[in-house]
Amino acid sequence: TDTAGNGALTQQEVEAQMDVLNAGFKQTRTKFVLKGTTTTANNAWFVASPDTTDEADMKGALRVGDASTLNLYSLANDEGILGWGYF
Hints:
Elements: H1 11-24, H2 43-46, H3 53-62
């Protein structure tokens, strides 16, 4: 979120997205389990773009878990993309 609270997700929105994620992977027998959520207000990180210093700084500061842990970040963008991922 930014410092004005724009982009903050409710717990209900997070849980609904987890349902969508699990439905999409159902046939692969992969299941995602929500271990927790945090909210961080940072204006630069909220508008971070792929492959930028802001993205690297954000993920470096906020990432939890190991390679088996999926971390999701909710950001604003004006690039016309719904999101991005690295594999």
